[in-house]
From TrEMBL:
It holds the Pfam family Epimerase. It comes from the Bacteria. Keywords: Decarboxylase, Lyase, Membrane, NAD, Transmembrane, Transmembrane helix. The keyword 4Fe-4S does not apply. Residues 28-274 form the NAD-dependent epimerase/dehydratase domain. The chain crosses the membrane at residues 26-47. The keyword rRNA-binding does not apply. It comes from Breznakia pachnodae. Its cofactor is NAD(+). This is Nucleoside-diphosphate-sugar epimerase.
Length: 355
């Protein structure tokens, strides 16, 4: 937490959508120490501390020790409650949450290769247990953080200009790498099934490649690795040609998508989350970071484990028109978001070195 980050939280907290949010709402957030979950916690706590809200936040994670470090400014606050637990196990809680947000998932390509079973369980079993919890406490709405990877590979790549929410591409189920997109697909169907059978209100968000200052140190995704290189002014090592084209989105804009889905989202609907002016090939993304950090791009051969975790999707482009139709807009382009991320992380390093 530094002044630049606080200024950003203040920007988002002034969004008019918060006028529609009950100031004493109760949130139950799985994956609270991950990149998306932790940003959402920070944003809601900022509303409490700076705007006088009294939102109760139940932040679920597997390690109290890790959470106490990540949320050291929140941990003793009366509105913050850490829930130690694993979403792949039954959730036993008497907390009457208004909103349940499932943001717990292996989103690291290395884990897809080394922990495909855990990746599947985190999505499907995690969603199952959170939906059962929402059913027991009569929650107002469940938000599932799915993924743009659930679309798979476009069937007609030559005419492809981006996925809309009704599209569906090809996923190779003969490889364990399918654990991630197929787990996301299965969890989405589970949401729809609980809606039809038990009338559990849910909204699905399909984010593209999310980045930002709340990324974890263990995140081995290309964009996170590149950003860390930019922060420390190291040359970026590409382990492919870098031709894959992707949509990107700044984590603060992603957190706001969750809020808009809670307030304005339509029950049972899915919404793509992608920033404006944020489509780039991997090699172009690396160039943006190198130009900002004044470093170079080099090439290396990936290991067998790294290759196993790579996505085979040549173009992962998401259209965000549907999300915009409920009032959401992105504040950061890819260039401005990368700059903001590197600046915040560098300032945090400087502050830690001083203390």
């Amino acid at each position: 937490m530094n002044k630049r980050y606080e200024k950003e939280l203040d920007l988002f907290s002034n969004d008019k959508i918060f006028n529609k949010l009950n100031q004493e709402s109760v949130f139950f957030i799985s994956g609270s120490t991950g990149m998306i979950g932790s940003y959402l916690v920070d944003l809601l706590m900022y509303l409490n501390n700076a705007k006088g809200y009294k939102i109760q936040i139940y932040a679920m994670g597997r390690s109290k020790e890790s959470a106490s470090k990540r949320f050291k400014t929140h941990f003793d606050n009366v509105n913050f409650h850490f829930v130690e637990g694993d979403v792949t196990k039954t959730i036993v809680s008497d907390v009457k949450a208004d909103y349940v947000v499932h943001a717990a998932s292996n989103s690291d390509p290395k884990l897809y290769a080394t922990q495909p079973v855990e990746t599947l369980n985190g999505n499907f079993l995690g969603m199952l247990h959170l939906l059962n919890y929402a059913k027991e406490v009569n929650a107002k709405r469940v938000i599932y953080i799915s993924s743009g990877e659930m679309y798979g590979i476009p069937f007609d790549i030559d005419d492809f200009d981006g996925f809309v929410e009704t599209d569906s591409g090809y996923v190779d189920y003969s490889k364990s790498r399918a654990c991630y997109p197929s787990g996301k697909r299965a969890a989405e169907v589970l949401c729809q099934s609980y809606l039809d059978e038990y009338n559990i209100d849910s909204v699905i968000l399909r984010p593209c490649h999310i980045y930002g200052p709340t990324m974890t140190n263990s995140d081995t995704r290309a964009i996170s690795s590149f950003i860390r290189d930019g922060v420390f002014q190291r040359d970026i090592v590409l382990k492919s040609k870098g031709d894959q084209i992707r949509s990107h989105c700044y984590v603060g804009d992603m957190a706001m998508a969750i809020v808009y889905a809670i307030i304005n989202g339509q029950t049972g609907e899915a919404y793509n989350v992608a920033g404006d002016s944020s489509i780039a090939a991997i090699k172009d993304l690396a160039s943006i970071i190198c130009n900002y950090a004044n470093t170079e791009i080099t090439f290396d051969i990936p290991s067998e484990t790294e290759q196993k975790g790579f996505s085979k999707v040549p173009a992962a482009i998401l259209k965000n028109n549907k999300l915009k139709s409920i009032g959401w807009q992105s504040h950061y382009s890819l260039n401005s978001g990368i700059e903001q991320t590197i600046n915040i992380l560098r300032e945090n390093i400087d502050t830690n070195n001083q203390t």
